[in-house]
Design a protein that fits this description.
The chain has 311 residues and is of the alpha+beta class. It folds into 2 domains: 124 residues, 2-Layer Sandwich (D-amino Acid Aminotransferase, Chain A, domain 1), CATH 3.30.470; 170 residues, Alpha-Beta Barrel (D-amino Acid Aminotransferase, Chain A, domain 2), CATH 3.20.10. The chain is built from 9 helices and 15 strands.
Length: 311
């Protein structure tokens, strides 16, 4: 590592570049058509967590989207680990990173649809990082999340498969604005066209009913890495986990609801459409068992880290 490094580096255009010098062209398909595949990973103790899982999902998403990645998965893992090593040294004590991959088909200087694109586009591929803003998530652990069902519906898998993590997210923006009319801190929980629960704009949603952790059907959601961790921990703890179609009635009558996502791992939900979940307290017994097991796995108190009190 360059000991004189004074700002984070970004991997773009096949090389490490100071973050202040990393740019993409205004004619890029990521801007013109919103055609961007992405993924996001976090660190624990300033080391990558579930790196291979995220890289695998990213490459699978790119294959689905017909965007060739200029690195194979092994090279991607190596370069990402090096970027984390460089940028983590700029963090304060106790800080952690989120790492982002994104790729677009490249630049189209005629600013038209894909039909006018050059035959051999060079994809725009970038890996960058940012410090995890723990303070933005602390309220989830003290008061819990409020989920609101907006009128905006989830994009059907027949149009874009939600297993593909992408940035074509105007519908999520609209859903968030609608949810914020109810509660400025609310998160939208979208229904599919048949009225089944799907996911929020940044997290998977899981329900606990009679001791069983229930997930919306896989065809309608991103297969989150944090959701996968919860599934593994449920198996280890002997907690039943099932996947099926769920409706609003299931959420309003749940014993517990919680979210799973990379930055804060998991967080309790205390309200749905203004109604309390369970007794309305943030974190029920199943949530607490899983969070405790996850904290033991990574060697720190996840809740305390989000609250800024980790030792």
């Amino acid at each position: 590592m360059n000991e004189m490094q004074e700002e984070p580096v970004v991997y773009i255009g096949g090389r490490y570049t100071p973050a202040s010098q990393a740019h993409i062209n205004i004619f890029d398909f990521g801007i013109v058509l919103g055609t961007t595949v992405t993924d996001l990973m976090r660190t624990f103790h300033k080391r990558p967590y579930r790196l291979e899982d995220h890289v695998r999902r990213f490459h699978e998403s790119c294959k689905y989207a017909r965007i060739p990645v200029p690195l194979d998965p092994r090279e991607n893992v190596e370069i990402t680990a090096e970027l984390v090593h460089r940028n983590a040294e700029l963090l304060p004590e106790g800080g952690e990173l989120c790492v982002v991959w994104f790729i677009t088909p490249g630049e189209n200087l005629v600013y038209a649809g894909s039909a006018a694109a050059p035959a051999n586009l060079e994809p725009t591929f970038c890996i960058h990082s940012f410090p995890i803003p723990f303070r933005l998530f602390a309220h989830l652990f003290t008061g819990g999340a409020h989920l609101v069902i907006p009128s905006t519906r989830h994009v059907p898998p027949e149009c874009v498969d939600p297993k593909i993590k992408n940035r074509s997210r105007l519908h999520w923006w609209l859903a968030e604005q609608e949810a914020h009319l109810v509660d400025p801190k609310a998160m939208p929980l979208l229904l599919d066209l048949s009225g089944n629960l799907t996911e929020t704009s940044g997290a998977n949603m899981l329900i606990v009913k009679d001791g069983v952790v229930l997930s919306p059907a896989p065809r309608n959601i991103l297969l989150g890495v944090s959701r996968k961790v919860v599934m593994e921990l449920c198996t280890a703890l002997g907690i039943p986990f099932a996947e099926r179609d769920l409706q609003l009635h299931d959420a309003l009558t749940a014993d517990e609801i919680f979210l799973t996502t990379t930055p804060y791992c998991m967080a309790p939900v205390t309200k749905v459409n203004g109604l309390p979940v369970g007794n309305g307290a943030p974190g029920g017994p199943v949530f607490e068992r899983i969070l405790k097991a996850w904290s033991e796995q990574v060697g720190l108190d996840i809740r305390a880290q989000m609250m800024g009190t980790v030792r």
